[in-house]
Write a structure and sequence with these properties.
Largest sheet: 3 strands, antiparallel
Low-confidence stretches: none
Structural class: mainly alpha
Distance between the termini: 23 Å
Mean pLDDT: 84
Number of helices: 8
Helix content: 55-70%
Strand content: 5-15%
Shape: globular
Number of strands: 3
Oligomer: single chain
């Protein structure tokens, strides 16, 4: 399902149905709803860009396959221009932050204490601390706050 979503355009409703996210993984969808986004059409283009079109009302029957194709074509054209403006940086990052470490960082970024984060994720409190220490090493930071700030700066969490 993730491979399918990363290759072709899809709506937020379709991704919710395919993935059925729970807990902290629903955070992005809930944040969008909070700010008035009722539906979103995402177009992954070129393996590097994700162009998203959002709507304040649900996409109905008028959102046909022809409309999808037109929006995806417009996204592809926009990406051609974006690639000219922002050339690819050759050096990949030398760290790999695991999904569990990202989940811990997201919870800590909203001010959740270690004990609550551990209960929320179903792991031990010391395991949460260990995940944070590993992230600090990978990001080259010294504190919890600095780790969250650096993860936000590098767009690891939002």
């Amino acid at each position: 399902m993730l491979a399918r979503m990363s290759l072709g355009p899809h709506t937020a409703t379709e991704s919710l149905q395919m993935l059925e996210p729970i807990g902290v993984d629903r955070w992005g969808f809930e944040l969008a709803l909070k700010y008035g986004v009722r539906e979103m059409f995402s177009c992954p283009v070129g393996g590097r860009w994700l162009i998203a079109f959002w709507s304040a009302s649900p996409l109905g029957k008028e959102f046909t396959d022809g409309a999808r194709i037109m929006i995806f074509a417009a996204s592809s054209f926009a990406v051609l221009r974006l690639d000219q403006l922002a050339p690819l940086i050759a050096a990949p990052p030398d760290y790999i932050v695991t999904p569990r470490e990202l989940a811990v960082l997201r919870l800590l970024s909203i001010g959740m204490p270690f004990k609550e984060a551990a209960e929320y994720l179903g792991i031990g409190e010391e395991t949460v601390r260990t995940h944070l220490k590993k992230v600090q090493l990978k990001l080259g930071v010294r504190s919890r706050t600095h780790a969250v700030a650096e993860a936000l700066r590098r767009n690891l969490i939002s």
